[in-house]
Design goal:
The structure holds two protein chains of two kinds. Chain A has three helices and three strands. By secondary structure, chain A is mainly α. Chain A has a domain of 49 residues: Orthogonal Bundle (Histone, subunit A). The longest helix of chain A has 24 residues. In chain B, 39% of the residues lie in helices and 19% in strands. The longest helix of chain B has 20 residues. Chain B is elongated. The N and C termini of chain B lie far apart (83 Å). Classes of the chains: A mainly alpha, B alpha+beta. Chains A and B meet through strand 1, helix 3 and strand 3 of A and strand 2, helix 2, strand 8, strand 9 and strand 15 of B.
Chain lengths: 99, 500
């Protein structure tokens, strides 16, 4: 049984805003399946008493004081923006016309 | 879009039982953002409170603001929640430009506070609203949609984004389903939002200004036929930004859904928007494709494990909460339930308490705020607290009344002057010459004149009809342009007419 289906890869691509062609889907689905299967082998050794790791450092509770630090100037902030207008980031249309 | 005919509210309630759920977002009033040191002030010029962290630039790392965590724990404790011993942040992934990172740092299956409750009162009946969870996240940027229909996202040509708000600490409070409220559902929803606002305000962790968006409610409503035990499909009305709108949105959504269901239709699970102008909701994003945010534990932040000692320290800092305070002042001021409710609804609790602190007695403090000043606030269509008069000034006026330097009528003129910007009470008294005539000689002269002018009434009093003195007192007050002390004038009149 495959670890990930072609349909799931298509769905993930859509969520990630990746335009994949049919060929690419075939190609990537097979590759991802192999990768996930390989990683899944870790689960064979993971015992009940080993919690899943989300962070490599054995730390908790690192906080900073509630103090201000300098911000960028608007010019700096917008410097690398593809488009700016009225001191704001200009982005393409977000949603199409309502159906 | 199909044409919907809403059902009349009473008919809808006769056939259906509403189930509510409310998600409330509250921006915390920290001086810096959740994960960086940028300022958080409202109304700054666009993109002046941003840095590489909150702009999601490569190579940056977030660090959690301790004051924000203290704030949410206080809220959790005030809502009777358990504070978990260990939890993590999660990434909520989505493509929408209000977050420059393409994800929002939030919490998913491990919220910081769980299983609380908040009691609210409607028409003298208490409803316990169960709290499912309270979790920590960051606010998003603000978008301006250009072109297309006025300011709407649909059909806009493009959008302009200001990231000042992105990364401001945001607390989300989620209720469990609120059932068995029947026809009071809209009022219960409003009472909950109001009580939550007052509670958070009392904690001093947020300014909870709904009109500025530092508190906003998403209101879920579903209907089930009376007697059924399976809930209907719900809709979620987003970002409702006043208490009144919370009430109206629930009401109109009940009427709309009942209309759809009664006509044999189905409710679409969707987001809706409340329209202030019509008091109704309109369809927003349809959830035809289930949301898939691909949550996973945030790898850039380490877990939180709030020590029990820390939690107890924070619990010890909680102030007197609104419900306890209301019980206390009701006893101290000797109010009936109804009088207390009026004071609370008028937003006069703080004002009266501060007036008492400034030296007035409870009865007078309440009288001025609830009668004279409430009336003027209504006339000017402003909130009581926004009248240009301070509790200390009200206390000063009452002090002059107590000292018999002013009577009630003159006191009202003093309030009029203070509200008109003529200065403080003493200045108004001096400028307008508002003093009770306490000079006995002057008062006697007025009284003699009044007795001479009103011989008939005077004779009645002389012959023992003491009640007739009222007309004479009135005449004295008129002749003194309200500046006589009525009780003193009455006494003097009776004396002169051999009735004392």
């Amino acid at each position: 049984m495959s670890a990930i289906t072609r349909a799931e890869v298509a769905h993930l691509a859509r969520l990630s805003r990746l335009a994949l062609g049919e060929d690419e889907l075939d190609h990537l689905a097979a590759q991802l399946d192999q990768i996930i299967s390989a990683v899944a082998r870790v689960q064979e050794v993971a015992a009940e008493d080993i919690p899943p790791t989300s962070h490599a450092l054995p730390l908790t509770n690192v906080y900073r004081a509630d103090e201000n630090r300098p911000s960028l100037t608007p010019e700096q902030a917008l410097d690398a923006a593809p488009a700016a207008e009225q001191q704001r980031f200009r982005v393409p249309r977000i949603l199409d016309e309502e159906a | 879009m199909s044409v919907e005919t809403p059902m009349k509210y009473d008919d809808a309630l006769a056939r259906f039982e509403p189930v509510l759920g409310i998600e409330t977002h509250i921006e915390l009033g920290t001086v810096s953002k959740m994960f960086c040191g940028c300022k958080t002030g409202f109304g700054a010029e666009p993109n002046t409170q941003v840095c590489p962290v909150c702009l999601g630039l490569p190579g940056t790392l977030p660090v959690t603001n301790r004051a924000a965590i203290e704030g949410i724990i206080k809220i959790g404790l005030a809502l009777n929640c358990d504070i978990v011993e260990w939890c993590r942040f999660a990434r909520k992934n989505y493509f929408y430009p209000d977050m420059p990172k393409n994800y929002q740092i939030s919490q998913y299956d491990e919220p910081l506070c769980v299983d609380g409750h908040l009691d609210v009162e409607v028409d003298g009946e208490t409803y316990r609203i169960e709290i499912e969870r309270v979790h920590m996240e960051e606010d998003t940027g603000k978008s301006l949609h250009v072109g297309g229909e006025t300011g709407r996202i649909h059909g806009a040509d493009y959008s302009l984004v200001d990231y000042n708000r992105a990364g401001i600490p945001l607390v989300e409070i989620v209720t469990k389903p609120i059932t068995a409220t029947g026809e009071r559902a809209p009022l219960v929803a409003r009472a909950y939002a109001g009580e939550l606002r007052d509670l958070v305000r009392s904690l001093g962790v947020s300014d909870v200004k709904m009109e500025q968006g530092s508190m906003r409610c998403d209101v879920n409503v579903s209907l089930m036929p009376r007697g059924a035990d399976e809930w209907g499909t719900r809709t979620e009305t987003k970002n409702v930004n006043s208490l009144r709108s919370v009430e109206r949105s629930v009401r109109s959504e009940i009427e709309r859904q009942a209309g759809v269901l009664a006509a044999g239709g189905r409710i679409t699970q969707e987001t809706r928007h409340f329209q202030e102008a019509t008091g109704t909701t309109t369809s927003g994003r349809s959830k035809e494709e289930a949301q898939d945010y691909r949550y996973f534990p945030e790898p850039d932040l380490i877990p939180m494990a709030p020590a029990r000692e820390w939690v107890e320290e924070l619990r010890a800092t909680l102030p007197e909460l609104p419900a306890a305070r209301r019980r206390r002042v009701q006893g101290e001021w000797g109010l009936t339930d109804l009088e207390l409710r009026d004071v609370v609804n008028a937003g006069a609790l703080d004002l009266i308490e501060d007036t008492i602190t400034a030296g007035a007695d409870a009865g007078s403090a309440r009288k001025w705020w609830m009668n004279e000043l409430s009336r003027r606030a209504t006339e000017q269509s402003v909130e009581l607290a926004d009248l240009p008069i301070t509790p200390a000034q009200v206390a000063r006026v009452q002090q002059m009344v107590d000292a018999k330097e002013l009577n009630d009528k003159l006191a009202r003129k003093v309030f009029e002057g203070v509200l008109a910007g003529e200065g403080g009470p003493d200045e108004v008294v001096a400028a307008r010459g508002l003093k009770v005539v306490s000079d006995t000689g002057a008062l006697e002269a007025i009284i003699d004149q009044v007795i001479a002018d009103n011989a008939d009434a005077a004779d009645k009093v002389r012959s023992g009809k003491v009640a007739a003195v009222g007309a004479l007192v009135g005449a004295v007050m008129k002749a003194s342009r309200g500046q006589a002390d009525a009780a003193g004038a009455r006494e003097l009149l009776l004396k002169k007419l051999d009735q004392a």
